[in-house]
Amino acid sequence: MNHPLLDILKNQKKGIPSGICSVCSANEYVLEAAIERAKVGNKNVLIEATANQVNQFGGYTGMKPNDFRDFVYTIADKVKFPKEQIILGGDHLGPLTWKNENESEAMDKAKELIRQYVLAGFTKIHLDTSMHLLDDCKDAPLDPKIIAQRGAMLCAAAEEAFLKLKAQNSGALPPVYVVGSEVPVPGGSEENEELVQVTKPYDFVETVNVFCQEFKNFNLESAWKRVIAVVVQPGVEFSDDAVHEYKRNEAKELCHALSGYDNLVFEGHSTDYQTAALLKQMVEDGIAILKVGPALTFALREGLFMLSYIEHELLKGKAGVELSGFIETLDKVMVEKPGNWEKYYHGDELQKRFSRKYSMSDRCRYYLPDPKVNESIEKLLSNLESADIPLTLISQFMPVQYAKIREGKLNKNAKALLKDKVVNVLDDYYFATMM
């Protein structure tokens, strides 16, 4: 059985625009929405975890790779979606989380990270060794050869882990690999940069050549045949309050360089907030793997705010009902624990307060699992599930969902309304990837 992502590669090389949306989130509502959306079209769904989110120490989610896999599979069972159609991916797997340690320690941890992902059944592995480590010289860009050597070392660890997995499960699919890295680091830029540099064709070619050579040096020729994509910067990014839109003409030379490789497509990171038409252009130009994360939780946050407004209009003052106070609780917790947003949000206190709610970098997503915030979400949904939400309020605050309800396409309950906000974003990606 071939890896399903290889079909996308084959279609692209036949001149058939084809791609897939990579859902980068650990939020239960986002993942449930993504899996339900895939079920509608009987499609595969690609779900990825990042190295700082899920690792051998638990990451910021508290989940190890096995835990994340089981978390996703539990949601799949809930919505009766076949696990065989779930592609699990590991994003930015490498020493990123330990970049403040020396090479030997950081790489040992990165190897164990890779092993645990592969043994857990993750079959799309992004090898990212692009960052300086503590004992690297910081006065110059990291040598591409060092980046590739470290990437090959991690690939060797992945291949070793797969052999162990294969011995336990003869039907296990060998992993496919993605190399390269975008700038800036995952999650959106920390500053409102006015210029995003498209990857130069020379740099893309050099990345491919040096990785190919280092894979050979490590006797990884068979693994190199499963390198399916290179991460590049095609000119898309977002920040606190701005979106750098894809400009096809500016990426023309880069995309033309891809035509020289029969076994590669591009992977685009930070494609959040691009329009459906621009996402489609990206797929047509060979950027076949479109990663999205913050835009999904941004839509989820919007949905929670809208439901909060509905709750306020419908239930404020009603005997025996305690309002959730979700919006106030979220901001209070963010103020009390500023570590996940203070580097990203600038200006005076009014500007920061606005950004905490409405920033496109959506640092809110780090606070949704907080016990106080999660409790307020559960109370919000419980309050509205026990009420009959008038169509007039849905029309006022969620007009897209109102139209779907009128057309018989959506149930009129709080959780369905919330998840459909996420589906609105995913629909743009399904349109773009021809799925």
SSE topology string: HEHEHEHEHEHHEEEHEHEHHHHHHH
> What does the radius of gyration come to?
22 Å
Number of DSSP strands? 10
Overall number of domains: 2
Number of helices: 16
User: What percentage of amino acids are in beta strands?
Assistant: 5-15%
CATH fold-level topology of the largest domain? TIM Barrel
> What best-fitting shape do the alpha-carbon axes yield?
globular
Distance between the termini: 21 Å
Strand order across the largest sheet: 1-2-3-4-5-6-9-10
Q: Which whole number gives the mean pLDDT?
A: 95
CATH homologous superfamily grouping of the largest domain: Aldolase class I
The main pleated sheet reads as: 8 strands, parallel, barrel
Per CATH, the architecture of the largest domain is: Alpha-Beta Barrel
Task: Output the keywords.
435 residues; globular; TIM Barrel; GI Alpha 1, domain 2-like; eight-stranded parallel barrel
Describe it:
The strands form 2 sheets. An 8-stranded parallel beta barrel has the order 1-2-3-4-5-6-9-10, surrounded by 9 helices. It has 2 domains: 4-292, Aldolase class I (TIM Barrel, Alpha-Beta Barrel), CATH 3.20.20.70; 298-417, Orthogonal Bundle (GI Alpha 1, domain 2-like). 49% of the residues are buried. It has 16 helices and 10 strands. Helix content is 48%, strand content 11%. It is α/β, with parallel strands linked by helices and 435 residues long. Strand 4 (124-127), helix 5 (144-168) and strand 5 (176-179) form a beta-alpha-beta unit. The longest helix has 25 residues, at 144-168. The chain starts with a helix and ends with a helix. The model is unreliable at 184-193 (pLDDT under 50).
